Amino acid sequence: MTGVAARSLGGFAAAAICVYLIGLSETRPAGEQPAISVRSFSQGRAEGKVSNLQSRQSVTRDGKETVLVKYRWLDPHHQGITRWKGDLAYLDPKAPKRYLEVALRVDPKRMDEAIESFGVVQSWLRKQRPGRGQDRWIAQAGRRGITLAPQGRQIRVSVAHQWVVRQSAADMRPAAAALRRLWKSKAYFTKRELLAVMASFCQWMEYKVPASERTNEAGETVVTTGVTMPIETLHNGWGDCDSKSLLFASLLANVPKQRVVFLTGSGHLFVGVRATPRKSDHFIELQGAKYILIEMTSPWPIGRVPQKQMAGWRSKNLRVHRIF
């Protein structure tokens, strides 16, 4: 695909319901399995659903309580995809299965702090009115990871993606280091292979939409726009396109010389990472730099997103949000 210059670099967020239909091919070359969507392919390998969470248990180490979370998922370099037809992937039935495993520690105290730092109290939000003084309460919400955009007499509420990633990069440093060690242990050395390991780790988490609100310690309803903080997503082992993408970006924030954008529209979010695209990759071009695209809802190979998303980009129905 030929890169297209971005028309908008403003932030944009929307509730994300990311469901893709399973398609079957009527004909196929001898020796190939039926063509199926990557999501259903991955579900088949995972015996019913996409989920890499193996176990979660509380442990005490040096007098400090932590949660040990273990993950296991299919190595993205051994998916056995032989060719594509639209969004359908043809599989090699003889392709070897190879899995990746990692055990990560989550500090429950730090996770609670991150959760409490994010979101605005609903009763406070309802008192705000567009007009004089709005800059003050817009800034106040921004310091808690929420973007407020007055639209006429209404206020549009969305997650501040950059804020979440900035707040979470340090929390994700140990996990990023563990995934880099895993990458090296498999004799992978290229940037693309590291992207694939980190992306697949997030993609293989169960797809589940978080609640749009939570209750704080004071019993107040807090608006979170259906997003979990990356450390919470890591602990839970599930998330939707927003939460998985934020986790992925927070991991990549610990890898030198990375550039990440989010693309949003039609209730969906996916990721672009600056890298040299391969011939078959889906990518975009922003100010002369190429970004390969990554679908985070389920285990799509990096550089491959649903045709619907590429059509949205070509028709300029997607917006770009620079993360870092």
Topology:
Elements: E1 36-37, H1 38-45, E2 53-61, E3 64-74, E4 81-85, E5 88-91, E6 99-106, H2 108-117, E7 120-121, H3 122-127, H4 134-142, E8 146-151, E9 154-159, H5 161-168, H6 173-185, H7 191-203, E10 206-207, E11 213-215, E12 221-223, H8 230-236, E13 238-239, H9 241-252, E14 260-265, E15 268-274, E16 283-286, E17 289-294, H10 307-314, E18 319-322
The value of Rg in angstroms is 20 Å
Distance between the first and last residues' Cα: 24 Å
- Structural class category: alpha+beta
Taken together, the total number of domains comes to 1
Fraction of residues in β-strands: 25-35%
Number of strands: 18
Mean pLDDT reading: 85
Q: How many helix segments?
A: 10
Give a brief rundown of this model:
By secondary structure, the protein is of the alpha+beta class. The protein has helices at residues 38-45, 108-117, 122-127, 134-142, 161-168, 173-185, 191-203, 230-236, 241-252, 307-314, and strands at residues 36-37, 53-61, 64-74, 81-85, 88-91, 99-106, 120-121, 146-151, 154-159, 206-207, 213-215, 221-223, 238-239, 260-265, 268-274, 283-286, 289-294, 319-322. The longest helix is centred in the middle third of the chain and has 13 residues, at 173-185.
Describe the structure.
The strands form 6 sheets. Strands 16-17-15-14-18 form a 5-stranded antiparallel β-sheet, with helices on one face. It has helices at residues 38-45, 108-117, 122-127, 134-142, 161-168, 173-185, 191-203, 230-236, 241-252, 307-314; strands spanning 36-37, 53-61, 64-74, 81-85, 88-91, 99-106, 120-121, 146-151, 154-159, 206-207, 213-215, 221-223, 238-239, 260-265, 268-274, 283-286, 289-294, 319-322. Helix content is 29%, strand content 28%. The chain is of the alpha+beta class and 324 residues long. The chain has one domain (36-322). It has 10 helices and 18 strands. Strand 14 (260-265) and strand 15 (268-274) form a beta hairpin. Residues 1-48 have low confidence and may be disordered.
